[in-house]
Amino acid sequence: MFTGTYTALVTPFRDGKIDEAAFERLVRTQIRAGVDGIVAVGTTGESPTLDFEEHIHVVQLAVKFAQRKLKVIAGTGGNSTSEAIFLTKAAEDAGADGSLQVAPYYNRPTQEGIFQHFHAIARSTKLPLLLYSIPSRCGVEIAVETIDRLAHDSVNIVGIKEAGGNPDRVSQLRAALGVRFSILSGDDALTLPFMAVGAQGVISVASNVIPREIAHMVKAFSMGKLSVALKLHTNYYAFVKDLFVESNPAPVKAALALLGQIEEEIRLPLVPISSANRARLKATMTACGVLK
């Protein structure tokens, strides 16, 4: 079961290539901070602009650098079922602990098509699978009824990253699927509201930068220390919001670059954030105590 804090890790680049040394430092930082796991090559890891060889290599690096000290979930979804199966099998071979499967995007399948897509992927692997519903990016939502059907049809479909922005969906999912199905927030700003109605953690962008604080917030809420969790949420809320002032992962890469952890390099069609938004992000980081 996937619970707690999972960092949707960036893929650092240097001169157009994967910066392996920086990636290792990032993974080690996550281990020291006490997060439960990382997601390699998700949206934040710029999966759309990595070729297959790079994609698999980043998963291999994540497994190698994690040293079994945290879980590695590989982002291996896609809008081509055969490609998703190929990447998922490669992640399994690399030693990943699970796979994150985004809803098929652009081709806008029906709910039956979505079911058949995930059903085929689940049959191809022994890895536990987390579905990923983010209609703002994909143009389709995985219906609660489809998720329920998938969870009962495939024993290795064990949870979902819910990024629809609606706490009521969490309540619906929990009512339909029970407590053994993992529900993780896909939106940092909504982690506490989602957990209040049944989610069990977060796949976080913010924890690239403040992993200890996000992990502490999630653990505090899980232990019933609501005032501690709320204080952390309140202190870092402005920073969390500014991480989405432009398309993810450009702002979080800017934040990591301001901290000297990576080069601020991102692949087209995304570009580095504007100078105005970088100044805004820097000011927020300073105000929140993220940047000294």
Architecture overview:
This protein is 48% helix and 14% strand. By secondary structure, the chain is an alpha/beta fold. The protein has one domain: Aldolase class I (TIM Barrel), CATH 3.20.20.70. The chain has an 8-stranded parallel β-sheet. Strands 2-3 form a two-stranded antiparallel ribbon. Helix 1 runs parallel beside helix 9, helix 2 runs parallel beside helix 3 and helix 9 runs antiparallel to helix 10. The chain is globular, with a radius of gyration of 18 Å. The protein starts with a strand and ends with a helix.
Low-confidence stretches: none
- Specify the helix fraction band: 40-55%
* Domain module tally: 1
Q: Structural class given helices, strands, pairing?
A: alpha/beta
Architecture blueprint of SSEs:
Layout lengths: L3 E5 L4 E2 L2 E2 L1 H14 L3 E4 L11 H15 L4 E5 L5 H14 L3 E5 L8 H13 L5 E5 L1 H4 L5 H10 L3 E6 L4 H11 L4 E4 L5 H6 L4 E4 L6 H12 L3 H17 L7 H9 L16 H14 L4
Parallel strand pairs: 1-4, 1-10, 4-5, 5-6, 6-7, 7-8, 8-9
Antiparallel strand pairs: 2-3
Helix pairs in contact: 1-2, 1-9, 2-3, 3-4, 4-6, 6-7, 9-10, 10-12, 11-12
